[in-house]
Design a protein that fits this description.
- This protein has about 140 residues and is mainly β.
- About 10% of the residues lie in helices and about 40% in strands.
- The chain is built from two helices and eleven strands.
- The strands form two sheets. It has an eight-stranded mixed β-sheet with strand order 6-7-8-9-4-3-10-11. Strands 1-2-5 form a three-stranded antiparallel β-sheet, with no helix packed on it.
Length: about 140
């Protein structure tokens, strides 16, 4: 995918649409308690080199002092995770129109929170919350 290409996605009902701009730069799988509660399982998220352009009115929830979560106010689809400080936004991988554009998982985070019944079969790095926060 070139810098000019876009990767479309959106919610179940079509009220909120987005375009991931440019290539995917990172795919993370978060096993934190907030993601498990929000999605019913880990959050698979994709970040794009040129950011995300959103059309429609996503509903934003301040899930912590550091982040917000965006969803469709009509159908409730979980769509975005945003860093409060700088606005960096990731899209949930399942909301991409073509999730097959994701070629790999780059990392698992907050693995100490992972339920025992979720098995990790890939070789992506697996970081605890403490290890992740130490990288910042």
């Amino acid at each position: 995918m070139s810098e000019e290409e876009v990767c479309p996605g959106g919610c179940l009902c079509g009220s909120v649409r987005y375009e991931g701009v440019g290539p995917i730069t990172k795919v993370s799988v978060c096993h934190c308690q907030q993601c498990l509660k929000w999605l019913g399982g880990p959050m698979f998220s994709a970040r794009f080199s040129g950011g995300i352009r959103i059309t429609g009115d996503a509903k934003w929830f301040d899930s912590s002092a550091a982040s917000k979560r965006g969803s469709c106010p009509m159908c409730g689809s979980a769509l975005f995770w945003r860093v409060t400080a700088d606005g960096d936004t990731a899209a949930t991988a399942g909301s991409l129109d073509d999730p097959s554009v994701i070629e790999r998982i780059d990392r698992h985070i907050f693995i100490e929170r992972k339920p025992h019944w979720i098995l990790l079969a890939d070789d992506a790095p697996k970081l605890t919350g403490e290890e992740l926060l130490a990288m910042k």
